[in-house]
From TrEMBL:
Top-level taxon in the UniProt lineage: Bacteria
One Pfam family in the UniProt entry: Nitroreductase
Domain Nitroreductase span(s) in chain numbering: 9-164
Alphabetically ordered keywords of this record: Flavoprotein, FMN, NADP, Oxidoreductase
Family, per entry: Belongs to the flavin oxidoreductase frp family.
Organism of this sequence: Listeria immobilis
Top-level enzyme category: oxidoreductase
Protein name: Oxygen-insensitive NADPH nitroreductase
EC number: 1.5.1.38
Name of the coding gene: nfsA
GO molecular function, one term: FMN reductase (NADPH) activity
Keyword Flavoprotein: yes
Length: 246
């Protein structure tokens, strides 16, 4: 084990930050760390928008479910799947831009952005900062795109709020057993006994964390959340932004 692995394994989402902006040096290091991530075929198909204006943060918070930690934080970053640069290059080089609207190119941009964001997250935590991903910005992608003045061939994917954590935060949630995540050579059928044991572990975790106010297994949480249809406007938005073929 080493400090890097300790940082990764100690991760938890921070939802309460000091009202203190990150320094210019910290911002530079975080962005540089994000850019050092792997990128498919050197495409670098993402952009990062830093939101320091608290009025804009408040508008984003309203879209994301009124999460206070998107407003009071060191910095709020919005990660964008971005093929707009590539559109400009293809047009300049007189290459057909139709290929940019394929599912493969959209996936490349999404994966590039996710890899960059996780690099930033690990860098932030290694500096003693806390982070929390904000998927709620996709509650209204059209409004987010308007707020950020996004051009065609881009999509707002998620936010990442980074700041100085207030003491006595949560500890890492127990992850699924490796037996349910890691498969050797071929996909293995889920062992329901292992799942049941994990469900009980999560029940105990929530019970202790909330002093009995929440007692819920992982399976119950998934059934309640993943079982719901939501954000059904995403397909139409992707088509509008030329990130998906009609």
């Amino acid at each position: 084990m080493n400090k890097t692995i300790d940082t990764i394994l100690g991760h938890y989402s921070v939802r309460k930050f000091a009202d203190k902006a990150l320094t210019e040096e910290e911002l530079a290091v975080l962005i540089k760390s994000a850019q050092a991530a792997s990128t498919s075929s050197f495409v670098q198909a993402y952009s990062i928008i830093g939101i320091s204006d608290k009025q804009i943060r408040e508008k984003i918070s309203a879209i994301a479910g009124n999460q206070a930690y998107t407003v009071q934080t060191g910095q709020l970053f919005i990660f964008i799947a971005d093929l707009a640069r590539h559109q400009a290059i293809l047009e300049r080089e007189e290459v057909d831009i139709e290929a940019l609207s394929t599912s493969e190119k959209s996936l490349v941009a999404i994966i590039d952005a996710a890899l960059a964001a996780q690099n930033m997250a690990i860098a932030a935590e290694s500096l003693g900062l806390g982070i929390c991903y904000i998927g709620g910005i996709r509650n209204d992608v059209k409004k987010m795109a308007e707020l950020l003045d996004l051009p065609p061939y881009t999509m707002p994917l998620f936010g990442l709020t980074v700041g100085y954590p207030v003491a006595n935060q949560e500890k890492a949630k127990p992850r699924l057993p490796q037996e349910l995540i890691y498969h050797q050579n071929t996909y293995q059928k889920m062992d329901l006994a292992i799942l049941a044991s994990y469900d009980e572990k999560i029940k105990q975790y929530y019970n202790k964390r909330t002093s009995g106010k929440r007692v819920e297994s992982w399976s119950e949480q998934m059934a309640r959340g993943i079982g719901q249809k939501n954000r059904l406007d995403l397909k139409a938005f992707l088509e509008k932004q030329h990130l998906s073929q009609k």
